[in-house]
Amino acid sequence: MCEVEGDYNGLECNQKIPVPTLNRKCMKCKEGAAVLIIRVNDAFCRACFKEYFIHKFRAMLGKNRVIFPQEKGLSREAPKKLRFMPGIIYIDDGGACGRSAEERQRSNALLKSIFTETGFPYFIVSLEQVFSLPASVLVPGTSDPDPSNLSYKQAVDQYVKEKQTLTEENVASAVAQLSMGDSAYSPEHKLALERLFSSLKTLTAKEDMLQTLRQHLILHIARENGYSKVMMGDSCSRLAVRLLSNIALGRGAALASDTGFSDPRYGDVVIVRPMRDYSSKEIAFYSRMFNVPSVIISGLDTKTHDKASIQRLTESFVTNLQSDFPSTVSTIYRTSEKLHTVMPPQSQSAEPASKCLLCLCTLDTKEDKASAFHATLVSEQLSQIKLQDLSLDAPGQSAEQCCTEGQGCGPGGCCSSNR
Amino acid sequence: MAAPLGLHLEFGGGAELLFDGVKNHHVTLPGQSDPWDMKQLLAWIRGNMLKERPELFMQGDTVRPGILVLINDADWELMGELEYQLQDQDNVVFISTLHGG
Questions:
Q1: CA–CA separation, A394 vs A145, rounded Å?
Q2: Which one, of A264, A267, A228, A230, lies nearest residue A136 by Cα?
Q3: What start and end residues bound the annotated signal peptide (chain B) (predicted)?
Q4: Taking the domain A65-161+168-337, which CATH number applies?
Q5: Which residue, B54, B97, B13, is CA-closest to A322?
Q6: Cβ contact (<8 Å) for A319 and B65?
């Protein structure tokens, strides 16, 4: 924390600013009564907040230019309108979280009614269906350079409706075309899923596996239905937590794609995160104030204690730190923005690098002597070496052996004497 | 001796899981000489309403970081947070933004 640009010293003094409460005016329009404080001290009234929220979304999409190039001549309407036709997808992961069939049906029904209200095509898919995916889902598709394949059809008042479906709780991804989801699954798949998750001993592993499976399923549905983009609802706060958790999980090499605005590793389908500029507080307030319907669904880590998994621990660490140092999340976020996805050169002649089956990132397991991977291998070897008779004095080798568990070397004693 | 205070409490974002899944509660706080403030309300909630896992709702005297509080649809930071003095028929909302409930 000492490195936070010296900002936090100023912040510490400003922590509890004795402002005249109850009479605070919106900092933007200076007239309306403030209802919300975001960031450190920016007070907004309802109307200005709504405008700010919507504007940020548009700016995010416009700035990143990954989506929605304007089609000229198609419409006389205001140039800033977003033109895309989204669908909604919800993955029912109750099978992995231990929820009963009735509970799942109940929440699915609630969600279905919310989705139908929006008027967009929607897919409610159960996680069990990941077992029926063809193997081709594990191969990244080629990105289609022909933009005429993307179809754009929307007017911007649909945009506001679309915003309403991005809730924090669900993985709600808005994309580009149509169909109905099928939430039925076979009992073999159900059993397979349960067995898979019960074979994972730690909650950390389960959460990671859930994320991977979900990703595959979303990709598959997107591909199957002709969607080229998938929008995830990850907020700034969640992404900051994910960034740190992923580093702890050893996924440092994939940070840029896991937490950046766009994730191109799947080739034909691009994952984007337009909500990454919003803190959890902003999203929660917006949902509350403008009545965005939501359904609370227990997940794997609901009501678990702080140390149950790496992800949970990181979340509680970041959230607690944030309450004392309000620039925590934004600092992590700014740092993550500096990470860029390195696109490999597009030479067709070169053999495509092999990819990890689970996360579809390029394999980084080339055994470089100075890499973290090599260190992991060495640790693995060391912890598996059986304790051998010390009289078999192979120099160097026995130095390693006696330092492993249970031999009880004196301080620097036996290792140095072996030399 | 002040009159008893009627309040409307709401829990969202998963926080309701700690209160038997019930989102809306009408409560009446007993009358006392000093006005009720948020700090006392939280202590009262912990003592009288929380069914389980108090550490998932509160941390010390205040709510756990990650739980947002709205008083009459406004951010409680604008109202003085713990020092805000409750009035009859106030509406207090607790929204959890955390994964772990």
A1: 61
A2: A267
A3: none
A4: 3.40.50
A5: B97
A6: yes
The Cα A400–Cα A189 span in angstroms is 47
Residue with tokens 């990650």: B66
CA atoms within 13 A on the CB side of A192: 12
How far apart CA B71 and CA B38 sit, in angstroms, is 10
Q: Give CATH for domain B5-96.
A: 3.10.20.30
Sequence letter at residue A125: V
Q: What is the pLDDT of residue A254?
A: 80
Summarize pLDDT for A186-209 with one digit per residue, the tens.
Answer: 788 888 888 888 898 888 888 888
Of A37, A311, A319, the CB nearest to B78: A37
Q: What is the dihedral of CA B72, B73, B76, B78, to 10 degrees?
A: -100
> What is the residue extent of each domain of chain A?
18-64, 65-161+168-337
Prediction ipTM score = 0.88
HSE-up of A78 (CA within 13 Å, CB side)? Answer: 6
Q: Which of A33, A169, A303 sits opposite B100 (nearest CB)?
A: A303
Nearest CA in chain B to A35: B74
Convert the pLDDT of each residue in A34-50 to its tens digit: 888 887 788 888 888 88
Chain B contact present for A369, CB below 8 A: no
What are phi and psi for residue A122, nearest 5 degrees? -140, 160
What is the C-alpha radius of gyration for chain A, rounded to an integer number of angstroms? 25
Reported CATH class of domain A18-64: alpha beta
Residue A167 CA to residue A115 CA, distance in Å, equals 12
Residue boundaries of the structural domains of chain B: 5-96
- A354 in reach of chain B (CB within 8 A): no
Chain A residues touching residue B99 (CB < 8 angstroms): 299, 301-302, 311-312, 315
State the best of A15, A19, A21 to mutate against chain B, taking most chain B CBs within 10 Å. A21
